[in-house]
Specification:
The protein is of the alpha/beta class and 282 residues long. It has a single domain, classed as Rossmann fold. The protein is 29% helix and 29% strand. Strands 1, 5, 6, 7, 8, 9, 10, 11 and 12 form a nine-stranded mixed beta sheet that branches. Strands 2-3-4 form a three-stranded antiparallel beta sheet, with no helix packed on it. Helix 1 packs across helix 7 and helix 2 crosses helix 3. The longest helix is centred in the first third of the chain and has 12 residues. The protein is globular and about 55 Å long.
Amino acid sequence: MKIIKADNLACPIDGLKLVSDNKQLSCPNGHTFDIARQGYINLLPVQHKRSKHPGDSKEMVMARTHFLNTGFYQPLASAIIEQVNSLFTEEERFCFLDAGCGEGYYFDCLYQSLNVSDKNTRFSFTGLDISKEAVLQASKRNKNITWVVGTNRQPPLTDASIDLILCVFGFVSFEGFAKVLKTGGKVVLVDPGAEHLKELRELIYEKVNDTKLTDIDSEQFSVTDTQNCQFKTGSIDNENIKNLLSMTPHLFRANKEGKAAASVLTELDLTVDVVIRTLTKV
């Protein structure tokens, strides 16, 4: 298998294809974007931001990095890899997009699994996230993946250039995904299931609400496969309980009493319950 650098990045201002000269990317209209010293590219112009620092904060990113690096979620990574492997088509080239890549854990796991395969396909990997802090951390994890700061609503990629989009607990934009995905291309969509982190949720909330899957409200996509992945993490220590809480939306949703209850736990055995759906662009 051969890994190639992504060459399908597009200008976020006019949508024209970007060309690299090693230090910068530029489009035919003269818009230029520097390649950061760490190797990532910021393709999120001010007019596409809804806040000064959109996406996860540095604290959330570091908490997620520390937690995922422990391997507690490795069974989920393996399930994602197995599903993605089942979707390959025999083509000369196959382009991945991780839409909402965060600090890059799942995408790097996929990369590592493919990098040792005997496939003859040339693969390109683009990780996209609206958080600059997340992309910065991802760029430290794997130098062979093209990491980009950008938005799923307007992915800075050329039209119909992606074969498969991975979206793990991320923000879904069916319009944005349809624009960059080839006809017949796939989206592997990973959502929390009904039992996901139930032990933590029962601790920090007075009332535990049902978890709802992302609605597939687009005529451009059909659900072609659904898989469930459920497992127990085993004992999680106090430090990683805090990391887990800090890396999820529960940090903002839980009240003061709920956070305090979680902070004093010495260990917790959690249920991970995830639904992996495959969507096909029609």
